[in-house]
Amino acid sequence: MAIQTCSTRDEVTPNTCKHYNSVEEVPQDIRKYYHQRYTLFSKYDDGILVTDDAWFGVTPEPVANKLAEHISDGAPISKAILIDCFAGIGGNTIAFARSSRWKRIYAIEKDEDAIICAKHNAKLYGVDHRISWFHGDCFQVVKDELTPLAQYSVVFASPPWGGPGYSTDATFDLTTMRPYSLREMLQSFRQAQARLFVYTLGFSALDTDDEMHDHRVFGAERLS
Q1: Which one of 4, 44, 107, 154 is CB 3.0 to 4.6 Å from 93, fit for a cystine?
Q2: Cβ-count burial of 72 within 10 angstroms (0-12 exposed, 13-18 middle, 19+ buried)?
Q3: How buried is residue 134: exposed, middle or buried, by Cβ count under 10 Å (0-12/13-18/19+)?
Q4: Rounded to a whole number, what is the largest CA-CA distance in the chain?
Q5: Whole-model pTM?
Q6: Which stretch of DSSP H or E encloses residue 151?
Q7: Tens-digit pLDDT profile for residues 46-102
Q8: pLDDT tens-digit profile of 36-58?
Q9: For residue 154, which of 75, 63, 211, 70 has the smallest C-alpha distance?
């Protein structure tokens, strides 16, 4: 079978946004993630689009739903907007949008192909009308476009963590991760006066200090 792509009225989906129909089509290094496709997206067979780089970074749907529940319960009632700073192909964004907790979801993604996949996937889940999309650097978008909403917002960050090579490390250091360290995120979003929730790997190393006051870090192992 041929790999499926799709187009919308506004944009043509690039060849990097793919829907694999059989394991034979999948590059060898991501086949183990393809076998987990229904855990990643329960609607995979409806035409979910994924970039090859996103297979190992997207949050599995049950974990994304649990994470959305935790943040909904932990956020102040006065915060009615959620800003997803690293939307990727939409795993967490969709979970937040399916919740009745938020009046609006603002999703930011730097990778143009990934955000095209995310928009398409959100439509498959019927929540695209609840999401506003921004293509660009999250820090710049928050500063230039979303600062007026910060006092009403929760900022969610599940930053890129470098791919499957993480498994060779004893711990995942939040202070040195690239391209964005935890300290850099805190400093940037503090200026916008937004409350920050960070989702990262379950074996992360974090030195707690006053900078984490009123912010929360979720580890994958705690939520899975």
Answers
A1: 107
A2: middle
A3: buried
A4: 55
A5: 0.79
A6: none
A7: 999 999 999 988 999 999 999 999 899 888 899 999 999 999 999 999 999 999 899
A8: 999 999 999 999 999 999 998 89
A9: 75
